[in-house]
Amino acid sequence: MAWLISTSQAFWKENGQVLSTIRGTHPGSRKRNKGFTLIEVLTSFLVLSVATSVFIGLYTASLSLSKTSELNQLAALIAEEALVDLQKSSHGFVWPNFSDVEQNTYESVRPVKGGNAVNIAEYPSVMPNVERSYQRVRTQYQNFSWEGFARLPSLDANYVEILVVVHWLHDGRPQQYYLTSAVPRSVGEGFGS
To answer: What backbone phi and psi angles, to 5 degrees, belong to 177?
Structure first.
């Protein structure tokens, strides 16, 4: 063992200059250049690219959810207005003849004027004054339509269930919003088809 230690000490004395040159501590060697290596630059670029793509994806998803929420809110507003119309202005609609209707089936409720079961959503009574905003609201409402349905839950029921279904397209896919309520049976009596 002593032989190994003495041999290694002699080796390091003879080759010490080579070892210190490799380490960069030799008095004649230059200091390491300041800056980034290619690997460091590529790694930081990769991390920055991934972070940017994640941010853009989240931003796009946020915009899509915002638009979906806005359309659902408008559909709910249209459904509420249609439901109030059915309840308050029942004489303006052709109701099913409840004596001829099967129990628990929804039958279409159509307006007296026009006669179509599908109704285009009406614009709000107060519209924006600015032309661009006016056109935006008008276009938005044109994409919505609604249908009304009535159902007698049982033959002796003294109320009628009404259902309003609002239809629209979002990103090329059909969407629907449902809203239900009840009215006294007398509301539709006498207005049956």
So the answer is: -130, 130
CB 150 within 8 A of CB 188: yes
pTM of the model: 0.68
Q: At residue 67, does pLDDT exceed 80?
A: yes
Q: Could you give the 3-state DSSP secondary structure of residue 2? A: helix
Going from the C-alpha of 112 to that of each of 19, 130, 148, 159, 187, the distances in angstroms are 101, 34, 13, 22, 15
**Would you list the DSSP string of 77-146?**
HHHHHHHHHHHH-GGGEEB--TTTSPTT--EEEEETTT--SEEEPPPPSS--SSHHHHHHHHHHHHT-EE
Residue whose C-alpha is closest to residue 87's, from 192, 190, 185, 165: 185
Residues of the chain with pLDDT > 70, as a percent, come to 76
Residues in the chain: 193
Helix (H, G, I), strand (E, B) or coil at 28: coil
- Which two structure tokens, joined as six digits, stand for 59? 């931003």
Nearest C-alpha neighbor of 28 from the set 18, 36, 38, 41 = 18
160-175 pLDDT tens trace: 899 999 999 988 899 9
Is 162 within 8 Å of 181 (Cβ atoms)? yes
